[in-house]
Amino acid sequence: MCLGIPGEILEIDGHEARAEFWNVEKTIRLDIVGESVERGDYILNHAGFAIRKIPDTEVEETIAIYESFLEGDEDEALEEIGAADAVLEFGEQQSGARGRDR
Amino acid sequence: MTAEQTLQFREPEAANAIVDRLESMMDEIDEDVSVMHVCGSHEQAIAKFGLRTMLPEGLTVRMGPGCPVCVTNMPEVDEAVALAREGAIVATYGDMYRVPGTESSLGDVSARGATVEVVYSASEAVALARENPDREVVFFATGFETTAAPTAAVLEADPPSNFSVLSAHKYVPPAMEVVAELPDTDIDGFLAAGHAAVITGYGIFEPFVQKYHTPVVVGGFEPLDVLLGLERLLEYIRDGRTGLDNAYPRCVTRAGNTVALETLWNVFEKTTGEWRGIAEIPDANLVLREEYAEYDARKRFDIDPEGGESDPLTNDCLCGDIMAGTAEPDECSLFGEECTPTNPVGACMVSSEGPCKIWLEYGGTPEI
User: Fold this and answer.
1) B270-291: per-residue pLDDT in tens?
2) Which terminal CB of chain B, N or C, has fewer other CB atoms within 10 Å?
3) What are the structural domains, with CATH classification, of chain B?
4) Are the beta carbons of B121 and A44 separated by less than 8 Å?
5) b/e per residue, B327-363, with b = 16+ CB within 10 A?
6) Per-residue confidence at B3, pLDDT binned at 50, 70, 90?
7) Residue A3's closest chain B neighbor by CA?
8) Closest approach of A21 to chain B, Cα-based (Å)
9) Which domains does chain A have, with CATH numbers?
């Protein structure tokens, strides 16, 4: 699938970052995201590369939309994250966006 | 559009309201309308939720060349197979593993001892090269702009000298032109892929709209996204206008991701190439620029794909016609019989974005 999947940036090391997707962590690249990205930002990940920074105002809605259609299609989501054996925890991811200082 | 509205994207009432508007517009148009989507994820949504059964009579949604795995040409697979046989580690995306070449797939040669690694990303392929400094690692790179930009990014980031790329990347807009000109297709509007447009921006379709006077709407992948995209297209058709619209503003802008595009075009250039079963299409294949020749597997190796006979069933495979929108999966005599996801004849039965695999998986009636 070519959907891309939203995740939260946990830490950044040069062009690499650790990102969290519903409690599944994955290393992704920031080379082509096209905007300045900081810890706590949300990005759209596709094939291990952030291809878009999700605007702060759209994070909550984006996560809710993805959660509603990925529930029941967890395998597809895990394939898109690149973590086939992991377990997604829906409902966990929004805490970062809501809880951090802006 | 408010957040409340977009979050109702699976509400049956909202879907029915759009379908009512589609019906009313079809009454006004008063003739058959054929719309083509160019995205495997659109087909997934349409088939999974049985959207075709909800559409008004006379409105047909056809599949176009929106599955990059499906249009990867057999000789390209043969090149990857040859490199694996000759001792290189071939890294590729999971969808490519079982795509049949002329005689063998990468999965076949892996079973016979070649090293084929399924990777999640271009950067994992580079990591493989770093972990295996004594081996050549070839990344058999497939996909449209959303994966071509990452391939370009790893080449710009100074990969190790034992890393190279066998590019089967494709570029969609010229293929849309070819499909628009096919005598057997009569497409009144195109629903373009939302996520490729995250990279390219929806402005990329402006020249197409002007040249073919055919409306293009970029749409998302959820049932209501697809229905909204169809609604915008019917508005254009009803009004006798052409135009370009973005029905997926939560992800797509007119300009797209300019950094990703710059990276892509720094590394790749367009060339003429065969799209499996469709046509030889000018400017629709992406190959490495001369500046990156040292990482170009086609220049680094003397690739010698074996000849031989392909599976005779290949002659009956309608994958190319399906990708061109002139046939549907269940018109193929092999569909679900000789050709299945575990024993595919054509690439359309392999990829999760392949229309044959999708149709076999979801026969369905509307779930929304």
Assistant:
1) 999 999 888 899 999 999 999 9
2) N
3) 69-172+257-300 (3.40.50.11740)
4) no
5) bbbeebebbeeebebeebbbbbbbbbbbbbbbbbebe
6) very low
7) B195
8) 15
9) 5-95 (2.30.30.140)
